[in-house]
């Protein structure tokens, strides 16, 4: 299985191509969260992905809380992020 990694800008453009539109204030908040937490693009994209899967829409406070939690728990990969999300009850086991 190939690892997918996007820089943040391309990740947001990819979501837009798939029909998901972020409002300008949401994009600004995403970058604010990235800067506030000192997170990598990969961790930010994972936080956005898990936020959308859990909330079915972009929820800024959920995203920021999740981003901080992933960073505090030294989550670095998609596999780690999904396992962690399942462990804390954000995603159902599949």
Give your account of this protein's structure.
- With 94 residues, the protein is an all-alpha fold.
- It has a domain at 25-87.
- The protein has five helices and no strands.
- It has helices at 8-17, 24-37, 41-55, 60-72, 78-87.
- α2 runs parallel beside α4 (60-72).
- The longest helix is centred in the middle third of the chain and has 15 residues, at 41-55.
- The mean pLDDT is 91.
Shape call:
globular
- Written as H for each helix and E for each strand, in order along the chain, the element string is HHHHH
Radius of gyration, CA atoms, in whole angstroms: 12 Å
**Low-confidence runs of at least 5 consecutive residues:** none
Which assembly state applies to the chains in this document?
single chain
């Amino acid at each position: 299985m190939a690892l997918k990694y996007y820089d943040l800008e391309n990740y947001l453009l990819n979501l837009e191509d798939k029909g998901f539109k972020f409002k300008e204030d949401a994009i600004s908040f995403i970058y604010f969260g990235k800067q506030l937490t000192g997170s990598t693009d990969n961790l930010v994209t994972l936080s956005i992905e898990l936020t959308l899967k859990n909330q079915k829409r972009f929820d800024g406070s959920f995203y920021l809380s999740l981003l901080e939690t992933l960073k505090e728990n030294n989550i670095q990969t998609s596999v780690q992020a999904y396992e962690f999300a399942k462990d804390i009850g954000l995603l159902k086991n599949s």
